[in-house]
Amino acid sequence: ALLATLPIHAGERSLEVSKTQSTIEIVVKATVDSFTGHLAEYKPVVVVDPSTGKVITASFSFRFADVKTGKDDRDKQMLTWAEEPKYPEGLFTLTEIQPDTPAGRHLVKGTLKLHGVERVLEFPVSITTNQQLFSFDGEAVLDTRDFGLPIIRKFGLLKVDPLVKVRFHLQAAVPAT
Prior knowledge:
Blueprint: E1 13-14, E2 16-28, E3 35-39, E4 43-49, E5 54-63, E6 67-68, H1 72-81, E7 89-97, E8 106-114, E9 117-129, E10 133-143, E11 153-154, E12 158-159, E13 163-173
Antiparallel strand pairs: 1-4, 2-3, 2-13, 3-6, 4-5, 5-7, 7-8, 8-9, 9-10, 10-13, 11-12
C-alpha cells in the first residue's frame, strides 16, 4: 500500500529489500536487564535513480507488535507502554539526503512518527552501491520522551533509559526487468 502512494517517474526504480540480509536492532539500556530488540517485520520503500545510484525517496514503516526482545513478557509490557492498540505503527519518511562526506557518509533527514507524534530526525548513513546492489548502514538515537512516551520505572530504583539507539543494515537490489 505504501508503494502505491509514492510517485515513480521514468527511470526511477523501487528497490527490493532483502529481509534475510537486512537487520533492524533497537538497543535499550536499563538499570538492570539492558537488551537489544529486533524488528521482525517492516515495510521499507526505497526509490533510486539506477543510472546514478542516488536515492530519490524512501520510507520505512513498522508495527510495534513486531519488535521482539527475546522475552515474551517484556514484549507485552512494551506494547502496553507504547499504547500499541491506539498507536500500532511507526513511520519514517525521508525528506533529504545531504551529499557524501569525506568520511563516506551521508546525513539523512526525515520525519519520524511514533505514538501519534511527528518529529524531525537526522542521522548519518553509509550508502554503498554498484548501481544494482545497495547497502544502507546507520544508526539513530531517539529520545522516547520526544514522542510523549513516559520513562519506564520499576520499584522506584530501576529505570529504562529514554535514549534508544536504532541500528540498521538494509541490503537491496534493483529488480530484474
